[in-house]
Amino acid sequence: MNINLPGRPFSLALRLTFFISLSTILGFITFTWIMLHSVEDHFAQQDVNDLQQFSARINEILHSPAAQEPQRVKQLQDLIAGYRDISVLIENSHGETLFSSPQGSKLHLAKEDASFLSHLNSGDVFLWKPEVNSITGNQSPLINNQTYRVIVASGQASFGGKQQSYQLIIGLSINFHLHYLDALKKKLVAIAIVISLVIIFIIHFAVRQGHQPLRKVSNTIKNITSDKLDERLDSSRVPIELEQLVISFNYMIAKIEDVFNRQANFSADIAHEIRTPITNLVTQTEIALSQSRTQKELEDVLYSSLEEYNRMTKMVSDMLFLAQADNHQLLSEMVIFDLSVEVGKVFDFFEAWAEDRNVALLFNGRSCLITGDPLMYRRVLNNLLSNALRYTPEGRVITVSVLEHEHNFDLTVENPGAPIPEEHLPRLFDRFYRVDPSRQRKGEGSGIGLAIVKSIVALHHGKIRVESDAVSTRFIISIPRM
Ligand SMILES: Nc1ncnc2c1ncn2[C@@H]1O[C@H](COP(=O)(O)OP(=O)(O)O)[C@@H](O)[C@H]1O
Ligand SMILES: [Mg+2]
Fold it and tell me: Any idea where the Histidine kinase domain is (predicted)?
């Protein structure tokens, strides 16, 4: 189901989880790092302070003018005894020990190890970790594996009765701090790992939860089958990000439903349309046969039947025409011709009928050269004019006008008469659609005329629309000039 096919982008849940987790974990690592370093810095600062204070205190004792030397040594020993982690070594310029605390002699090595510092200044502080094998003599485990922060200081004081320059080296074992830092580091890493896992889990859960509406919508869509095309999704009940998608989907489904319904109705319509004339024929024939008829009566029946046959023939050929138009089999050669000439020909054809009904035909426009199939245009005009003539009251005028624009032209057929109720307008071009279905029985066409007009207009890449109000009914065709 969720396999990553080549070329398919990673799942949204995976991406979101990955990026949010990554940033959270990076944030967490940074926080841990900053925290460890600030604790480390704090300890270092504290150590340096302690060393400086201690060194000042020792210098003070060494320089106390009143005290005798044994007294000063005693004072030093007392001072050092109070600090378990501190070792002290005082040497003269020849490297001879002037004073040493119990562990102090090792600090001689510290000075040597620090010789990488080209030049040791008074007050310098450095880190010293004695190499086990560099320690000669006393290999006390106390010194092994210890790390010291060391301060050096120099000065002059009286030792052994004479004034000597000395170097003071103080080492502060920082193992306690290091252990603490080490433990803290381990603890933080462990916490970081656990929290990161929890975060990833929560994010993944949240993302999946966030996609819930998407799955819901998709499930609903999955359940819409051809017999449930009237179902719609409620766009007010999905998150705002999905609203547009749902609206578009509803729109698409509505269009599909419309087409589907028309297709479904089409066969029923055909059957219905053909059944009526056949029923008429059967009834007529049965009545004619029910008793003996004169020659004249039989002829009348045959004429009436002929009319019905003709209507059926026309309807069938219209339907055939429509089917061909829909399959784009009708586009014969396109030629350049004058539309006004074609209008004139159709007017000639309808002249007698118009006169009969006392209706005038008016052409409003100039000669207009267009590209297309003239026979098709004649058929369009035929259908529109025959409708118009049928619905125009006596003594009124039907106007056909042609309006040229830069890229297209408008062909309008306008007739006065009772307006078509608005709810019928969108369906007028459907096959078999009539505003008043009872009219067919009066032999007024089968409702295919406008469908044919629309197909022909579509073949010429144009559009047709209808407007109807108290003044007139207008069919407006707009076609690109090509
Ligand atoms: N000029 C018009 N004025 C009023 N109604 C019209 C006009 N033209 C078409 N109609 C309506 O549109 C319907 C469909 O027209 P059409 O497809 O030509 O079918 P038909 O002419 O066979 O009835 C007609 O039945 C009629 O109700
Ligand atoms: Mg018609």
Answer: 269-482
